[in-house]
What we know:
The chain is mainly beta. The chain has one helix and nine strands, in the order H-E-E-E-E-E-E-E-E-E.
Amino acid sequence: MRQWSLAGLPIVLGAAAVACGSDGAASHGGGQGALGDPNATVVPVVAQRWSYSPAQITLKVGVPVVFEITSVDVHHGFNLPEFNVRADAIPGQKTRLPFTPDKAGTFTFRCDFFCGDGHEDMQGELDVE
Length: 129
Ligand SMILES: [Cu+2]
């Protein structure tokens, strides 16, 4: 089994901090920046080898939510490439990911942090209507 080096981690975390900083800028009219809309619905997402619970999520265009992502076993990722958002799913932690879908359709979220033999097939479906 392939082991990922921790050497890459500070780079990833650093990039996330930069993204959060710009998102929280005052120019972001009325929003709560990286903390997300306080009225946004929290959508819990639990990652485990090698699936997500729920495996299917339905959201509405323009309605903000906050994904609250965690893992029950090892470090996973949560990546929505069509929306250019991602977060880490870490055991014992909840990662909050504010998200407002801006287009309708059926999309795939997938693990982007190598987690073992089933990693390539670890995915779920996001429906935006
Ligand atoms: Cu994985």
